[in-house]
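We treat protein structure as text, and this decision shapes the records that our systems exchange. The tokens are whole numbers drawn from a learned vocabulary of local backbone shapes. Below, we set out a record of this kind in full and without editing:
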Amino acid sequence: MFENWINIFKSKINHIIILILVCSNYVLAQSDMSPPTLTKFTISDICINTSSDIMDVTFSTELSDNLSGVADVFLGYLTPNGLSSSFEMQLVSGDSLNGSYELVVTYDNSDVAGVYTYGIYATDNFNNSLSVSMFGRELLQAGFTDSLKIINSNSDSIVPSLMDFEISETCIDVLNGSIDVVFTATLTDSLSGVADVFLGYLTPNGLSSSFEMQLVSGDSLNGSYELIVPYDNSDVAGVYTYGIYATDNFNNSLSVSMFGRELLQAGFTDSLKIINSNSDSIVPSLIDFEISETCIDVLNGSIDVVFTATLTDSLSGVADVFLGYLTPNGLSSSFEMQLVSGDSLNGSYELIVPYDNSDVAGVYTYGIYATDNFNNSLSVSMFGRELLQAGFTDSVHSISPNFEVFSGTIRFTSSNRGLIYENDSGDCFRVTVDSNGNIESKITECPLLNAAVTVEKSHVYIGTNNAPVVMTSQNGVSWKLEIDNLGNLMTLPYNNTGIDQTFVEDGDLYLDKSINCSTNGVIIKSSDGSCWLLNLDLNSQLHGLSINCP
């Protein structure tokens, strides 16, 4: 009987212990506020070719949740073309407190080629959630492989993209020791990923090569690549230029060449200047020089003349460029020109100079003076007309208002005499009237100076609006050439034989363009006092151009 009592007591004790344990676990479960923990993630393949066959890829992960236990696990994925979704993974070993989960995914030639990225999403029995997202590449950040590259007939045909390029220094002096320069390039390739990146370089003396850059952050889909290059006194002094060359895993190639300064064109710094004991001793070279106008007439106001010089300096680069000038009365000075295209190694420099009636009339000559960053100087002087000797235009003929003034009428008493104009091609045209008073212009020989009255001024100005020009037709009738208030030319019979100013009985009025490079002509007044310049148009027809009265 005593033994029975002992057995009953033991049984009661065991029930109490079991009840305590069950209650304890229930309390712990009720207080679970921690998400599951990811302890492992693997992908059976990181690169597969499904061009000719299907491929199974196994995704495995291990998670623990020592309170309420893991309820479900999902594999999230992001395709190369930006689509995303997820598949549920199955428990294959262990239990909800500490278990292994697996998913087998079949890929074939119908899938988009490129790089797929993955993430893990899990919840426990109290809805605490774990998110290790594929969007932020959080598996990769946690130290796990998170991507799979698929190669097939739909593979990547897009070149990598250069997002950024930086050089840690743009000018270094290595006279006293070596200096490290850091080159950094950021590239993206959202399909197959970048395979390799090279930094190309061109030395000041024309040698070129490249170095491979190393991935230092991110990954092949979006990563930064770096190269550290030490320079010292043994390197050629001058300006080095750089380029970026990259290929992806489908051999699509990106070339941002140093030869075409394509990094610079894309908005990045692409050069490094090195100063040392081997530094530049070569002067800049003048490649081209242009003047927008070689003859200007400032009768009606100011005229801008554009001066453009192209210079190269393949070592240290051009530092400054000046336009020197010599005026017709012997004064000289210079203006600094500004870089408008290219760079200091090969650039165009420009200066715009306004000329007006206050400037001395005559021929101005010009020169170019330039120095590089090592103070090597180029002088193409205006005093020796060295620009002209080098094959460039070096002068501007500036004409201020310069008149032969007549107060009366210019009268031609011979029917085969009149105004003779010379065009830009050197052809001469005589303007006369026919028997009906119609204005005619016919090509003629340019007269000798002793065969006609030659005006050695820029313009003839007739200071009256009463029959300023009179011509005689073949039937002996005199016609006055007038202009209305709108600039329309007309001829009317003329009978006044009074105080006309008459040129040589059998002479022309020859407007000699060799004396003045501007468009010469006769200025007459209309009835309202407006002034008009009579000149020949491109069709050799006389017309009136509105002009300020002298």
